[in-house]
What does this fold into?
Amino acid sequence: MTDAFGRKHDYLRISLTERCNLRCFYCMPAEGIPLRPKDHFMRTEEIISIAKTFVELGVKKIRLTGGEPLIRKDADSIIKQLSELPIELGITTNGILVDQFIDCFEESGLKAINVSLDSLQHEKMASITRRDYFNRIMSNIQLLIDRGFDVKVNTVVMRGTNDDEITDFIEWTRNTNVHVRFIEFMPFGGNDWDWSKGVSLDEILSRTTDRFGAFGFERITDRANDTSKNYRLKGGIGTFAVISSVTNPFCDTCNRIRLTADGKLKNCLFSNSETDLLTSLRAGNNILELIQDNILNKRSMRGGMDSISDFSNPALNQQNRSMVAIGG
Ligand code: SF4
It folds into this structure.
């Protein structure tokens, strides 16, 4: 699972579905994405079988994503079966259904939970997600904190939409045991991306300094392979961080690969070349070679869009799937 640049891949993100109970405007079109026949997607036993193969190859961490992973009817069975593997299991969810799965999480030892939340304001969250679940999401975040989960909050920062709340999110971490991660706005199929709507790591830090002072917060140690640069308010309970794929990419330590809900292997979030594992598995073939070839073909950075001009070129960055069909 080592690529041509010596990066060892031991972290698999599995998308359980392309469906979601939200319609975030930067992730999927208002009408949703075209629904495909059920047999296009991995069945429970196929997810477990492919996951076992990756664990045999050295995967140590699996994160479940979507769309919204918890809307899948067999989500609890998948979580329980994966929790029997020698891995660290995590999930990224929009938080709406967390109260219905929290016992399953505890029984399965699933502790690392990322909840997507793009605003601390009810109405704005409703306008970003085109659904009204703000109160439910906030109470479920508090429920997770009260039950001792390690709660990260993923916030995509968009200029003119929620960048005015950056320091409010940080203030939230002062007395709340939550880890806010600001994500630089990234290009995906159909999200009408251009960098003028993004807010960079540097700008987030300068706004933080303006509000809290240069000595009001501190840099804290990042974990190995961390995608985020981490900080804490002085005396704060929680932390905040920035994931800077646009202005400060972290590809040199990348250990991540992705399995889409329809069983395709993506060696990079931004890679357009995918390997179809599901069809091969259903044909009874061994998928090991396919996996190794896919990883050996991984580009050094952002699926080959190394320069910011390439990364900003719609002719290149719009060939990728929509975010909902990758799972971040
Ligand atoms: S852009 Fe691709 S190579 Fe870079 S860190 Fe993300 S997944 Fe890894």
